[in-house]
Write a structure and sequence with these properties.
By secondary structure, the chain is α/β, with parallel strands linked by helices. The protein has eleven helices and 20 strands. Helix 4 crosses helix 5, helix 4 crosses helix 10 and helix 7 packs across helix 8.
């Protein structure tokens, strides 16, 4: 089950019980005991203080699966997290009890070729919070490797620390697409990942950013967060040519890089069509496992298509962006809940419902 802990059935009676939110069945979450593993010499025990709900958490709750990952037995949910160090292993030198930390949720093997190349996010042996069969972090406490716990600057809150996880997706996408001054950016989708990608692109120096979505409320949020222009679109594929024309008009220049943060036929088709010759399209969202898109015309214009999977080596940069004020994630946190059975259920309902909810956060 990974570093996170052991089955609730192994929880000992008589010691202070560590409680966690368990996904025990379709649309069923229960707060139950969660036995922690022994602390290894390079591990730390962290008391969770802030845990965000990700779209993948909601997807697991609603379907018990995500892509090839299937929940076959009860699993602790949650992976966007920050907390306070309670105990450190004997070989841990860089952290002490009381330190506030943000946790990178994936433990790679560090032995395979991909890890040795530095692309540890692609490690086939990755153990990632709340990805079956590994337990997550919506719990009172977790045990995690010290080298994946990053000390928060004094002016960065625990909630902001938890937001490093979704922000890391945007930062990794911007690195993959080589965003910098002079690169005009199009963001397809103004959900949480689209918004953090927009914020990251601005921090990387993109001079002009246009955000596209089907929802007026989300576009309003994007505008408030600094988008230079927004374009409302439909879900009808027939509208792509006209919408591309509007996007290019709002951009007022060529689209150098497009980020598809939704991952649907229409969003990818729009991104491919709107991006200038010689530009790039980065697929961030994974709404569809298969797509039908105008690949040949894009190839004829030498539009590069790149993908991303999670992130690597992003926490230090995310924390610096937050410390310096180059990125402000606080407006993305729209709903907060405590850690009771009722509040856990309400929080996931709020996140699943969408509406004006962007990031739903637990304060433990």
């Amino acid at each position: 089950m990974g570093k996170g802990g052991k089955s609730h059935e192994e929880a000992s009676i008589g010691e202070e019980e560590n409680m966690a939110a368990w996904l025990v069945g379709l649309n069923t979450l229960k707060i139950q005991p969660f036995k922690l593993p022994p602390l290894g010499p390079r591990d730390v025990r962290v008391r969770m203080k802030a845990v965000g709900i990700c779209g993948s958490d909601v997807h697991f709750l609603k379907t018990l699966r995500l892509a090839d990952f299937v929940v076959k037995e009860p699993m602790v949910i949650g992976h966007e997290c920050a907390g306070i160090i309670e105990e450190v292993g004997g070989e841990v030198k860089n952290l002490v009890p009381g330190d506030r930390v943000a946790l990178e949720p994936g433990i790679s093997c560090w032995r395979c070729d991909l890890c040795k190349e530095g692309r540890y996010n692609l490690c086939p042996e990755m153990k990632f919070f709340a990805t079956p069969p590994v337990h997550g972090s919506l719990a009172n406490q977790v045990v995690h490797p010290a080298d994946l716990c990053f000390k928060l600057p004094d002016n960065v809150s625990l909630e902001e620390g938890a937001m490093c996880e979704p922000l890391s997706v945007g930062v990794h996408a911007c690195r993959r697409a080589n965003i910098g001054p002079g690169k005009n950016v199009l963001v397809m989708g103004a959900g949480p990942i689209g918004l953090v990608t927009m914020l990251a692109a601005r921090a990387f120096g993109a001079p002009r950013i246009v955000v596209v979505d089907v929802d007026d409320n989300r576009l309003s949020v994007a505008k408030d967060l600094g988008a230079d222009g927004v374009v409302k679109v439909s879900t009808n594929m027939q509208d792509v040519p006209e919408e591309v024309e509007r996007i290019c008009k709002v951009m007022g220049a060529g689209v150098d890089v497009s980020f598809d943060c939704a991952g649907f036929n229409k969003t990818m088709s729009t991104a491919l069509s709107a991006t200038r010759a010689g530009g790039k399209v980065c697929l961030v969202g994974m709404g569809h496992s298969e797509m039908t898109v105008p690949l040949t015309p894009a190839a004829a214009r030498e539009v590069d298509i790149i993908g991303i999977f999670r992130y690597k080596n992003t926490w230090p940069l995310c924390l610096e962006f937050l410390r310096s004020g180059k990125i402000d994630v606080k407006p993305l946190i729209t709903h907060r809940y405590g850690f009771s059975q009722k509040e856990v259920e309400e929080a996931f309902e709020t996140s699943a419902r969408g509406g004006n909810a962007i990031k739903v956060m637990f304060n433990l």
